Each structure stands twice: as C-alpha cells, then as structure tokens.
C-alpha cells in the first residue's frame, strides 16, 4: 500500500472519537488506540520515505514534507502514550472503571474521560517533556520546565502550553455538560457532578518536589505531605499528577477532602 492510498482514506475518525456517537471504551478503547498508533506509525514512515508524496497529505492534516512526517510521528507518540496509560489503569485499578479515550467535542478534545467506581468523573490530558521537573511559579503565573543542559547546567524554560491545555480541557467538559451528553452521566444527578480536570505527566517528566508546599493537596490515596498532586488555580482549577501515581489519584477519597 502506497502513501497516497493511505492518506486518501484518512478522516477525523483517525484522530478522535466523536462524543455524539457511540464511543469505544475500556478494552475496545485500548484496541482503538493501538490500531491508531499503528496506522499513524505507518503513515509517518511512508511520509519519510515518500518525500514529495506528502504534498498530497489531505484532511484532517493539510501539511506536507518533513512537517507532515513530524506531525504524524507526534500523533503516533500521543496514541502510544495514551495506550500505555489505559493499559495500566485496566490492569491496576482495583475497582470498576470506565475509560473513554480521545473524545472530541465542539470545544476541543478530551484525551481520556474516566468514571471510577465511586461515580466520580475525570477528564485527562497527558504531556511529556523529556527528563524534567515541572514547577508552577505564582509570580509568573506560568509553568516552568526545570531540566539540565547536555553539559549538566540547570535550565528553566517556560511551558505555557499547560495553561492552554487546562483551558481547552475545561471548555470541552463544559460543552459535554451543556449538551447533557450521556458520556458523563445517564441522569441529571450524574451529569451535575463535578468533573475533575487533570494533566498526567508521563515518561521522565515529573512534578518538581520543590513547588510551593501549599499547592500540594490530598487526593485519592495520595497525601499532601507526599507532594504527589499539584493543584493550580488560574482561570480554572487544574491538577497535575505523575503517571506512576495515577491509580492512587483515582481511588475513592474522603468526602471531606
């Protein structure tokens, strides 16, 4: 199969699931992610080999050449990252859990929508930035990536994308609620429950333990003193959690917390 025959068959369904249709969940959702990962991996390889053929790259991504290959590779990595997270949750979460991946709304995408055994809803995005630690600076109202150069010198860089991610995630959740979409509850009581919005830091990207201690919170089975969950309040409230702590983050928590 050549590059043009693959690209001509692409559609929005190859990037996300529409919230207004029947979405695949749990094991079927995981299979969906793995299939899309394989699809985009093949596309990335073919674009890299095909060179000029990428100029014919059609919707949903109208880009060409090297940029097309990089974009396809980035999509491949995102599907792979989500597949690993879903696989971990299905394996390690001890109670009933419903995971809906790559949900598209009119206001944006929700990478993972999760309902836990206690009826709580969570909306997640995942991000990674190499070997680094992420810190919120209140004086700058922004996230910063703390890492080291190749020579071992400390380096700090602004990561404003996380604020945008939190804003888009909030808008996507509000859209689902306004539409009274069954994906976040089959009755009014469920649909009125708050949806916790969080960003999962994956790979070697982690929360910087040197964040302001007041910003760490108790959540699920994670305690504030452990410095595992960061709560950031700007226009919206967004939580940061490391992937390795995600199962404990989702565990039923004390109602007084």
Total number of distinct structural domains? 2
Radius of gyration: 19 Å
The secondary structure category is alpha/beta
The count of strands amounts to: 11
Average pLDDT reading: 87
The secondary-structure element order is: HEHHEEEEEEHHEEEEH
Report on the biggest sheet: 7 strands, mixed
Low-confidence stretches: 52-57, 59-63
Portion of residues in beta strands equals 15-25%
Question: How many distinct helices?
Answer: 6
Helicity level, as a percent range? Answer: 25-40%
Task: Please give the alpha-carbon distance between the first and last residues.
Answer: 55 Å
Rough shape? globular
Which strand order spans the largest sheet, edge to edge or round the barrel? 1-2-3-4-8-11-10
Summarize the structure.
Helix content is 33%, strand content 25%.
Question: How does this model look, in words?
Answer:
The chain is an alpha/beta fold. It has two domains: 1-92; 95-257, no CATH class. Helices cover 33% and strands 25% of the residues. A hairpin with a 5-residue loop joins strand 6 (142-148) and strand 7 (154-158). The relative contact order is 0.13.
